[in-house]
Amino acid sequence: MKSILPLFVLLASVIASAQVPQLKHVVVVVEENHSYSHVIGNPAMPYLNHLANTYGLAKDYYANTHPSIGNYFMLTTGKIVTNNDGYTGTVTGNNIVQQLLTAGKTWKVYAESLPYTGYIGGDRYPYVKHHNPFAYLSDVRNSSTEKSHIVSTTRLSTDLSNNALPNYAFIVPNILHDAHNCPYGGTCSDNQKLAAADSWLKSHIAPIISNPSFKASGVLVILFDESTTSDTAHGGGHVAAVVVSSQIKAGYKSTIFHQEQAVLKLACSALQLSSCPGAAATAAAPTELFK
C-alpha cells in the first residue's frame, strides 16, 4: 500500500504557503449565544446560510470562554481580560486600536442603539456595553478623538454612500437583533430570535458587501461570540464563523481549528499592521479560506 505521507506533506505545504491578502477594509460583526448546530443549516437564518454557502465557513471554530465579555476582549486585545459581564474597569495594554493608530489606519465601531456618538458609559437598553469592547480600551477612553469613532449603526449607510467605510469596522447589533433577546421583548422561540438577527444582518450587511470599495478590497467576518452555556468545548463552545470577501474561495468550508484570536490575526494581517495584540501575535489566521 502506498504511503499517504506525501499527501500530508503536500497539504501542509499548501496551507503554510497560503496568505491573507492585503486589503483595505476589515469588518467584524458579532452575534450572540448560539451553537454552530443551531445556526448553520437552520432555515430561520437563510441570509447567513446563503453567505456561508457562497463565501467561506469556518466549520471548526470555537469561542474562547463563557460568558460574552471575554470573547469580545479576545477579538480586540488578544486576551480574555475578564469573565465578568458587569466589568466596569479600563483595559490598558496592546489592542487593535493601538495598532491601527500606529499604522495610520482608520477605525469605527457601529453600535446599534448607542445613546450618542462617543458614548462609553454603561448599558442603555437595548444597547449593552459589554458587547462593545472598545468602550473599555484606554486608547479610546482617554481620547476625545478616538471616542468619536464609536458611532451609531445609523451612520453606516452614510459612510458607505460617501465612500468613507473605515479600514477597520466593528459592528454591534443591539440585544434585540443579535439573537440574544426576543426582537420585541417578552418571550419567543429561539428560531424567532435567530430570524430577527438574520433579517437585521441582511439589511445592514448586504449594503457593505455590494459597496464597490469593499468588493474590491474587503473582508467581512460574521461570528457568534459564544455557544450555549452547556457547550464548553475549548472554553466557549462550537460556534459559526462566516467569512465574506471577493478574495475567498467560493463556497469553501474550512475544517482547521480556529478561535477568536484568529479573527484578530486576520485583521492585523489584512491591514498589514506591524504587530498583533496578545494571543493573536502567534495565532494562525484562516489563510486556507483565501484564494
Q: How do the strands and helices of this protein lay out in sequence?
A:
Blueprint: H1 5-17, E1 25-31, H2 36-39, H3 46-54, E2 56-58, H4 68-77, H5 96-102, E3 107-111, H6 138-141, H7 144-147, E4 150-152, H8 154-161, E5 168-172, H9 190-210, H10 212-217, E6 218-224, E7 241-244, E8 252-254, H11 260-270
Parallel strand pairs: 1-5, 1-6, 2-8, 3-4, 3-5
Antiparallel strand pairs: 2-7, 6-7
Structure description:
- With 291 residues, the protein is of the alpha/beta class.
- The chain has a single domain (5-289), classed as 3-Layer(aba) Sandwich (Alkaline Phosphatase, subunit A), CATH 3.40.720.10.
- It has 11 helices and 8 strands.
- An 8-stranded mixed β-sheet has the order 4-3-5-1-6-7-2-8, with helices on both faces.
- It is globular, with a radius of gyration of 18 Å.
- The chain starts with a helix and ends in a 21-residue tail after the last helix.
Strand proportion, as a percent range, falls in 5-15%
Q: What is the annotated CATH architecture?
A: 3-Layer(aba) Sandwich
Structural class: alpha/beta
Shape: globular
CATH topology-level name:
Alkaline Phosphatase, subunit A
Order of helices and strands: HEHHEHHEHHEHEHHEEEH
Q: Percent range for helical residues?
A: 25-40%
Rounded to an integer, what's the Rg over CA atoms?
Answer: 18 Å
Strand order of the largest sheet: 4-3-5-1-6-7-2-8
Low-confidence stretches are 1-5, 7-16
Describe the oligomeric state of these chains in a short phrase. Answer: single chain
Structural domain count: 1
How many DSSP E strands?
8
The number of distinct helices, counting runs of at least 4 residues, comes to 11
The CATH homology group name: Alkaline Phosphatase, subunit A
Q: What is the average per-residue confidence, as pLDDT, rounded to a whole number?
A: 94
CATH class: Alpha Beta
First-last Cα distance: 33 Å
The largest pleated sheet is described as: 8 strands, mixed
